[in-house]
Amino acid sequence: MKHIIDIDTWERKNNFDFFRHFLNPQLSITSEVECGGAKKRAKASGESFFLHYLYAVLRAVNEIKEFRYRIDAEGQVVYFDTIDILSPIKVKENGKFFTVRFQWNKDFAAFHAQAKKVLTNIDPEGDPYEAEKTGGKELLDVLLLSATPDLYFTSITATQEYRHGNNYPLMNAGRAILKEEKLIMPISMTLHHGFVDGHHIALFYQKVEEFLK
Predict the structure, then answer these.
(1) 7-11: average pLDDT
(2) Domains of the chain
(3) In the chain, fewer beta carbons within 10 Å around the N or the C end?
(4) Cα 200 from chain centroid?
(5) CB-based contact 201:28 (threshold 8 Å)
(6) What is the structure's pLDDT at 127?
(7) Is the CA virtual torsion 43, 49, 51, 57 positive or negative?
């Protein structure tokens, strides 16, 4: 459900007012999380490691309200009780992808089962951006995470569609590598600085790692 924020009584009024007219009000950051536990659990159970970390990201975002603030088509600040996640899935070896939407479910087994159905029903000949076009500027109750499992990275710069920022946060998860005998993976994000600060970003990475470890 979408809720409209009363700017005058909003606890982040000053933060939002400070950044809202910046040429680029978005903040980008990349950090690493330990993920060896999830990798082992996925392998032991025959589950998808990709869906393990997709769930971890979506769970963290749904537990941190600041990640669910958005600017709607009327310029109002709104927030959602829960959000889903979009992710481009490679469907051909030449790199062609198809973006799909995974619905949030706090129960991991239910989330994994539903997500597998979504992956099974992808039409490789369809419009790769169909899920992102649905709703147009009103597609707000999501975030997007791109996975690059063959590429380890230390930073990334995301595209920005509107002057006020993107409709929703953009994230990227890279290749997991061994570092100091721990399996770690980079996760980047770009999101509106008027909505989140370093405190919320640190909390996000802590929550993701808590599940993945």
Answers:
(1) 96
(2) 2-212 (3.30.559.10)
(3) N
(4) 14
(5) no
(6) 86
(7) positive
| Closest to 173 (Cα-Cα) out of 32, 79, 5, 10 | 32
User: How confident is the prediction for the chain on average, in pLDDT?
Assistant: 93
What Rg, from alpha-carbon coordinates, does the chain have? 17
Lowest mean pLDDT of 81-85, 87-91, 96-100, 161-165, name the range: 161-165
Q: Over the stretch 115-171, which tens digit does the pLDDT of each residue have?
A: 999 999 988 888 888 888 887 778 999 999 999 999 999 998 888 877 777 889 999
Closest CA to 55 of 106, 118, 120: 106
Residue 177 contacts residue 185 (beta carbons within 8 Å): yes
For residue 115 the two structure tokens come to 């997500």
